[in-house]
């Protein structure tokens, strides 16, 4: 209540508007945080010496303007005004509609739907049958809370040269669950955490739900801006840093070895932890890019490593794993157990056999061959056709390009809306920021769902629409 | 900090002990809550006018006594003293060892392991292959966030006579996830919630993690004690009530129709929500017990219904669903999405085909036939052999009996320890309470993993050990 003492009423403006504006200001300045409960009508009217009706009207105004929301039977809560949230809904709705369209015509550069999957279905059938034949009922029983022991063992052998302590590995139902489990396990309300800017919105949602304070640090070509990073560390007790070390989503950048080393040093100095989200590192197209995740360099037990198999194995089979620092082993195991007991046993066994039998490596090779062709072709078109209107950082791997318009007359949300009229889908930059003030001049295109034919078609339409919009906006 | 002003030091006792005792008292009285951060060393020493060392020693004392815990780089936090937590670990460890034993010898009355599964594996193989044949790659892609549309439709048709709004159904990865999602979706820090006493510990963990205030209401033969329930409602703003309406875990009781109706009335009057955890209602052995869950009676959109398939379908295939009141539809969908995006697509499709093809009903019939025999036999033994030493409420269904010793000379944790020496496993009552002060005279036995032969063998050993212990304790 102490904030409200500073409110001095003026005569010329209705009191309820003054109350609403006063609270809006506190929210904009983050003195009142997202999800904070506003005082009850009664207590605030008493505190300010006004009628109940004044407060009711003020709260209604806040609600109608998106600065507050009502919880049935619980009161009114503050909401950080997010102009882009209505656009987020529009974006989701548009993506949902894709599946109702003629998929041979649609060009989906969002990478967020999965009309096509480069996976030999017969292999999976064979593997599942083999697992059921081999393990019988065991394939259908619950695993222990860390996961299927043979899968843990195989992951350690194939991906880590048996260097991990297998007790530190936890099988999770996809990377999103990994982030949720890590968040529940190590973060408390009001903990400070640093994220990349821009970053993956699914992680932001988890952190916001946990009611932590977010600090954002801009991404550069080789990782976050270290000066800004360290300034935050100096002024705030930071609990953890969430990072995508390879093909950062959405920017596509990968961290340089120097930055990774320095961040690990800083973690030790300032005593924070690193949540490393490794979602795509299998797809490296240029030899100049070495694969050395934070976790490999982690001599001080600072890194919670989360690996997703969804993009690479099968999107509908939610599987991934997490490597916990020994310190957090138990709390993360409990966090997993409380979240969903265990991950589907049959799927764990299928993945294990898939990796152990060598099919995993074969398929990665096949995926690399396929995607490198798309990557090269898209880069070729960007360099040939878009060099006057767009800049980008070469990701050297992964599935996305993050493009920035040279002419910032166009808002990429507008571009999105124009493009869907012609059945081409992109992801506007605003989707990756907490505030729509950012990302207006950038957008992400993915070749996950587009073969060469679709890349050609989609990029042609993209250029036409971009030039149209530029012309239109110039005339205004 | 305001609490600490009341601490007045006396001369005769070391100050650090006085500080520790003062805080212990605050924790015991719940003025400081589980997980609350204790003041920093510096601020408390300043506040109390003592040396830093005094506070460090006080905190160390609290930690060594289980009243506080350290978070690396974050400070010291209060912990509700739970004497039983070391026993919980002992219990888990013992259960883990079961799998290393000769399973033909072990009698596992805990119902928490799954050595045996009454499920035709060949059926599942057939179904999975049929799904892969029929749907091809689609079976491996992500579903929309609510789940596989046909499964939602089939659930509505087969289990709800198509009366539900299908947009209110969300497929989840088992009931535990349902509880986690509901908790994240509708509960805030410091919300008040009511739980049954005793209750399912997996739910308690989720709620504690969400940092809510728990109120416990004792279970009677036909549901919770309504007087105590309403007294809590009168004095506190309650957000929700978590209940298992059929074969409550561990007590095995089911709610009478009257109590369900009254609780729904109270929900409307006092404006709270009901989380109904329906984990076993398919197993009803006595016709006198009608199946009418809260959700059927829910005319005011008060019930979040969570259905588990784990015990009935397959424990290793984490599947269940949640029916959300329309009001919470969106927040619960988002909560699911942030938790793990979606539930395994292939398994959703397999379950759908399993239900739609009629195999579900066949298998339920088979399970009922099998379990009713075990239930009847166990009841027969209890009535014949244990009537002088044990009381119980007839569950009329489900998989468990909850037994109470007439002679409370024996602590059932002690009984547990003696029984595992003879390879018989039970679940002591203390496992279902937040404090080990309760449940010492009761324990749960399940026939989920015991056929008639094992029931006979196990109950014989149980009786011997019980009589031995009674004799031993009487001599003391």
UniProtKB/TrEMBL annotation, chains A, B:
It comes from the Bacteria. GO terms for molecular function: catalytic activity; DNA binding; DNA-binding transcription factor activity; pyridoxal phosphate binding. Residues 13-81 form the HTH gntR-type domain. Keywords: DNA-binding, Pyridoxal phosphate, Transcription, Transcription regulation. Pfam families: Aminotran_1_2, GntR. The keyword Transcription regulation applies. In the C-terminal section; belongs to the class-I pyridoxal-phosphate-dependent aminotransferase family. This is HTH-type transcriptional regulator YisV.
């Amino acid at each position: 209540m102490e904030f409200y003492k500073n409110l001095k009423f003026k005569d010329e403006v209705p009191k309820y508007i003054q109350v609403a504006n006063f609270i809006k200001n506190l929210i904009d300045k983050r003195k009142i945080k997202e999800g904070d409960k506003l005082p009850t009508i009664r207590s605030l009217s008493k505190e300010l010496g006004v009628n109940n009706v004044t407060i009711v009207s003020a709260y209604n105004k806040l609600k109608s303007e998106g600065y507050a929301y009502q919880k049935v039977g619980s009161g009114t809560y503050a909401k950080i005004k997010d102009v882009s949230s209505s656009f987020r809904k529009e974006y989701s709705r548009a993506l949902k509609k894709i599946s109702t369209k003629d998929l041979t015509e649609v060009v989906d550069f969002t990478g967020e739907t999965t009309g096509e999957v480069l996976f030999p279905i017969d292999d999976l059938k064979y593997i599942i049958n083999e697992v059921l034949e081999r393990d019988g009922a065991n394939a259908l029983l619950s695993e222990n809370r860390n996961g299927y022991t043979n899968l843990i063992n195989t992951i350690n052998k194939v991906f880590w040269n048996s260097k991990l302590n297998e007790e530190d590995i936890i099988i999770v139902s996809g990377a999103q669950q990994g982030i949720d489990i890590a968040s529940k396990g190590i973060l408390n309300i009001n903990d400070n955490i640093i994220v990349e800017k821009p970053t993956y919105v699914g992680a932001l949602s988890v952190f916001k739900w946990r009611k932590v304070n977010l600090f954002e640090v801009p991404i550069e070509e080789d990782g976050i801006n270290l000066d800004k990073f360290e300034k935050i560390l100096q002024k705030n007790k930071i609990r953890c840093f969430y990072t995508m070390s390879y093909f950062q989503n959405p920017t596509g950048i990968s961290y340089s070895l120097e930055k990774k080393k320095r961040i690990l040093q800083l973690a030790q100095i300032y005593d924070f932890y690193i949540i490393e989200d490794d979602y795509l590192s299998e797809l490296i197209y240029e030899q100049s890019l070495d694969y050395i995740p934070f976790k490999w360099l982690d001599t001080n037990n600072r890194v919670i490593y989360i690996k997703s198999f969804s993009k690479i194995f099968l999107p509908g089979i939610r599987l991934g794993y997490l490597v916990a620092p020994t310190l957090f082993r138990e709390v993360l195991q409990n966090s997993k157990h409380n979240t969903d007991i265990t991950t589907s046993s049959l799927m764990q066994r299928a993945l294990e056999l898939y990796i152990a039998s060598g099919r995993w490596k074969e398929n990665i090779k096949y995926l690399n061959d396929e995607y490198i062709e798309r990557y090269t072709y898209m880069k070729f078109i960007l360099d040939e056709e878009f060099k006057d209107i767009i800049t980008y950082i070469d990701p050297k791997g992964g599935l996305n390009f993050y493009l920035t318009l040279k002419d910032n007359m166009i808002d990429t949300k507008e571009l999105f809306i124009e493009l869907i009229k012609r059945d081409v889908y992109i992801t506007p930059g605003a989707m990756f920021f907490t505030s729509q003030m950012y990302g207006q001049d950038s957008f992400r295109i993915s070749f996950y769902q587009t073969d060469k034919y679709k890349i050609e078609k989609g990029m042609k339409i993209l250029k036409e629409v971009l030039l149209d919009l530029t012309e239109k906006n110039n005339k205004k």
